[in-house]
Design a protein that fits this description.
Layout: E1 6-9, E2 14-17, E3 19-27, E4 30-39, E5 44-50, H1 52-64, H2 66-75, H3 78-103, H4 105-113, H5 116-138
Antiparallel strand pairs: 1-2, 3-4, 4-5
Helix pairs in contact: 3-5, 4-5
Length: 141
């Protein structure tokens, strides 16, 4: 998907989009999204790759909210919006995990017994649970 805003590239005598997002499949099931911004000073595209939560959110927008994604591309704030919303979601996830950690008896036992593997596994589970709920409320709306 590209922005409607075009830039004339005199080297190739063609109009090119200022912003674009591209879904790339590098391995089976491993989707990444590349975000391109044409830098007029340099006369070239800069590319940023969306990974993890940023990639999930960009993928969601591309496939479920294309009109919203197109609008963000057109006004040039896609990257900032994605990063800000993901940071907001991650902060909420961290806060929720911290609350659950303090009240989870199994985690407290793992901490007291020094079982780092058990503690890490339980914390990863809490994080996954928090992300499932919070991402739906903050990102996937």
């Amino acid at each position: 998907m590209t922005s409607d805003d075009m830039i004339y590239n005199s080297e190739h005598n063609v109009n090119i989009p200022r912003f674009a997002i591209e879904e790339v499949v590098n391995e089976p099931g491993n989707k990444e999204l590349n975000y391109y911004h044409y830098d007029e000073r340099k006369g070239e595209y800069t590319m940023r790759r969306f990974y993890w939560a940023e990639g999930l959110y960009a993928h969601f927008l591309l496939h479920n909210k294309p009109e919203q994604l197109k609008k963000m591309l057109n006004i040039g704030d896609l990257y900032r919006t994605i990063m800000n919303n993901v940071a907001k979601a991650e902060k909420a996830v961290d806060e929720q995990v911290s609350k659950w950690e303090k009240s989870d008896k199994e985690i407290q036992v793992a901490l007291k017994s020094g079982d780092k593997d058990k503690y890490k596994g339980l914390m990863n589970n809490l994080r996954a649970r928090a992300e499932e709920v919070i991402y739906r409320q903050i990102l996937y709306v």
